[in-house]
């Protein structure tokens, strides 16, 4: 269970409008970019992020998060924003429950958070909730609409706040990965 690193990130074309990023482990966390429809100016880029969660190494410890770094492309001419969908994945099928209903902190994907209050100028959080596109909404998926109109490359940290259960009662945990924003579109 080694954490994913960006050193060996590769891009694998899935379709003309889709790109998937893998870390060192192809079965580890992934980021999939689904590009907006160029004929529909209201359509948004969708980024799908899998976050792999492993049980704590020691009793009473925190679970281990493997969350990839995300790069959000910008376009000063577009205000449609970008939908980022995080999905929690049980790394070894050890959890009886794993979702975004954290009870000790704000729940879900928290941007900005008390730990990380700063986001770059030109970045806006337009919506954040359990992913409403599934019926019923999936408690292990969280969707954030992010508007990126930065004029230079920047980054910001955010919090992934989860609730998990290994069979002996629910516990809360959090993790603080990074999002990179760039003024250029991804081609």
Structural class: mainly beta
Got a strand count?
15
Strand content: over 45%
For the termini, the CA-CA separation is 32 Å
The Cα radius of gyration reads: 16 Å
- The overall average pLDDT, rounded, is 79
Q: Which descriptors would you attach to this protein?
A:
4-stranded antiparallel β-sheet, mainly beta, 187 residues
Structural write-up:
This protein is mostly beta strands and 187 residues long. The chain has no helices and 15 strands. It is globular, with a radius of gyration of 16 Å.
Short description:
The chain is 0% helix and 46% strand. It has 187 residues and is mainly beta.
Topology:
Layout: E1 10-15, E2 18-22, E3 30-34, E4 45-54, E5 64-66, E6 70-73, E7 82-90, E8 97-99, E9 108-110, E10 123-130, E11 141-148, E12 154-157, E13 159-165, E14 170-175, E15 178-182
Parallel strand pairs: 4-7, 6-15
Antiparallel strand pairs: 1-2, 2-3, 3-4, 4-5, 7-11, 8-13, 9-13, 10-11, 12-15, 13-14
